[in-house]
Amino acid sequence: MEKQRYDTGYKEVGLPQLPVDRDFMYSFYKLWFMQDGYPGKRMDDGSISAHPIYGAYIVHDYLRLFKETKEKKYIEAAKKVADATLSHMQNVPNFNAIAFYYEDYKNLSYHAGKFYSGLTQARYLTPLFRLFKITKEEKYNTAVIKILNSLTVPQSKGGVCIQTSFGIAIEEYPHNIPTYVLNGWTTIIMELLSYSHQSKNTRAHELALKNIATLEKIINRYDCPEISLSRYQLTGFCYLKVISQAPKILRVNNVATYIDHKKYGMGATNNRWNNFVCDNDIDENRYAKNRQVLMNVVLSQINDTQMIEFEIESKSTKPGKLDFYISYGDYNPFVSAMPTKRWIWLDQYAIQPGINKVALQVENKNLPMIGYPTNFTKKLEDGNYNVYHWMHIHNFKKINKYYESIKLEYIKKKWMEYIKEWRRVDSLDAKNIRYLRPK
Questions:
Q1: Angle at alpha carbon of residue 125, lines to 214 and 412, rounded to 5°
Q2: How many CB atoms lie within 10 A of CB 22?
Q3: Structural domain that includes position 353
């Protein structure tokens, strides 16, 4: 008996059926066509939200079907989805650019606010350019150029391009504190190279090469040889606490960290990607109840060492002493951030009555799980897989198809060798872990 196919609602909007070999992904993404022909995501309440990246997937899939069958209906379908996509995109002010924005009310991302993704934007370059080449309709080429422009908009102006001390980088998602997500960044580079190869667009090619130059300088920071894994990103968070021997009454007014030489103070919300003082054990005036204050701090492996600054207020009339501790946890393949298992003493500082400025320096050797390694949280029928370590290798291979990077080729081979070691790594010795590449 033939297996029943996942219904994407294509008939209701006058589109042809999608490739059968993609059914699992359509089901996994809960894809359902909206009335205008855009492939949205069916939400738990039954509503359909326009997920920004889905249009790129479906234009690609219809163009693939056209290449295989030469049937014009698939070009018409690709055009309908592309037109719907462009109708959902918005102008990026002052940059002759367009973007498909993620917004809070759509519940499509755990990131707050309205923003666009470098990865999502880059995914549209090649399929829309291919559609232009086939149809000769200039609107698709114009859209591609404007999407390319969006990748150069500085993050400070609402975009995704950041200037690091190593060169420029395009972020998968714009954060107040940069995260340097490797999969997103390498996918963007890969898409820029693919598009520039087909279109001969030198600006896209140069943008890709600038990003590769930055990546080559910091790629070693993603390496975790002690557990034979790569990092998902360079930035992460952990808890830090200060315990007072004296005074009895103290308050942390501010905590700030430096990421790539830029200072970041406390965030507006107690989101773990912000620096903040936790509400545990403090009174209504933010003073410690039991001589200790717990904080969340955001740190990054892009730094050689971590600098943390505090403004601490003592209500005592006498000098006192403070001990600083940082949370620590071993790698767990089934979580996406470091679990707090124990505390490491860092240093002791003398403080005076009133306002005190304290600067604490933390060596990276005390922070091996900041910039958490890729995990095995992807659960399929037969077990848990590591998606992103494999994806890093795949992306390096794709990049080197267009540009020969000796550094990235070396890292690719090194990380492929890591996979052979997984069975011998204690933290990866779990019965439901699968060491093969997920399908």
A1: 40
A2: 18
A3: 235-366
Ordered per-residue pLDDT tens for the chain, 439 residues:
445 688 999 999 999 999 999 998 999 899 999 999 999 999 999 999 999 999 999 999 999 999 999 999 999 999 999 999 999 999 999 999 999 999 876 777 777 789 999 999 999 999 999 999 999 999 999 999 999 999 999 999 999 999 999 999 999 999 999 999 999 999 999 999 999 999 999 999 999 999 999 999 999 999 999 999 999 999 999 999 999 988 788 999 999 999 999 999 999 889 899 999 999 889 999 999 889 999 999 999 999 999 999 999 998 899 999 999 999 999 999 999 999 999 999 999 999 999 999 999 999 888 889 999 999 999 888 899 999 999 999 999 999 999 999 999 999 999 999 999 999 999 998 889 999 998 7
Alpha helices in 233-370 (DSSP H): none
- CA gap 264, 438 in Å, rounded: 38
Kindly state whether residues 248 and 141 are assigned to the same domain: no
Domain boundary among 166, 188, 206: 166
In terms of pTM, does the model score above 0.70?
Answer: yes
Assigned domain for 171 exists: no
Is 305 domain-assigned? yes
- The answer to whether residues 156 and 267 belong to one domain is no
Exposed / middle / buried, residue 336 (Cβ in 10 Å: 0-12, 13-18, 19+): exposed
